[in-house]
Amino acid sequence: MSDHVEVERTYEVDDSFEVPALSGLGRVDGPAERLLDATYYDTVDLRLLAAKVTFRRRTGGNDAGWHVKLPAGVDARREVHRDLSDDIPPDLVALVREVSGGAALAPAARISTRRLVLTLVGDQPLAELCDDHVTAQVLLPGHESSEGWRELEVELLDGNRATFDTVERVLFTAGARPATIGSKLGRLLGPYLPPT
């Protein structure tokens, strides 16, 4: 089990986008392919999503398991991780109880991602550039549907926030755009949030 803060930004790209060379920024390792499959849980009226809280069970990658992500400032979220299991960890349910109001959590979406990862390295790994090819399903009763898209994520590993600016300049020149919605789940389920 673990608890850490992740700092990342998301970018919109077209299917024809070509990831630019980052070699001018330092050593680049990869790409490494990761196949991720996540089921996202929420209340029937999406209380967690409305509060920018994510609750998921994910397989694949180097952090398979249960994750709860909580807002933690600009571009940052606190991630609480538990080992992979079939049952929802009760302590994670308790962690979001104030937001959920104690309402039952059920699968709301499934998101599968083919991720190609480039790692920017200085004296140590500074950031990951993830090229994500996404297949997503809405599981809300009465709203079942599916869609797909491509996006980029840059996650800081041991770099400072100036790393974002450096990588962004290269991405924007190649045609990437800041994401209007910062998470895959928000993009998929945002249209189903009750009006505020």
Automatic annotation (TrEMBL):
PROSITE patterns assigned to the protein according to its UniProt record, in alphabetical order: CYTH (PS51707)
Pfam families for this protein: CYTH
Membrane spanning stretches: none
Domain of life: Bacteria
InterPro entries: CYTH-like_dom_sf, CYTH_domain
SMART domains per record: CYTH (SM01118)
Gene3D superfamilies: Hypothetical Protein Pfu-838710-001
Domain CYTH residues, every copy: 4-195
CDD domains in the cross-refs: CYTH-like_Pase
Identification of the protein by name: CYTH domain-containing protein
Organism (species): Fodinicola feengrottensis
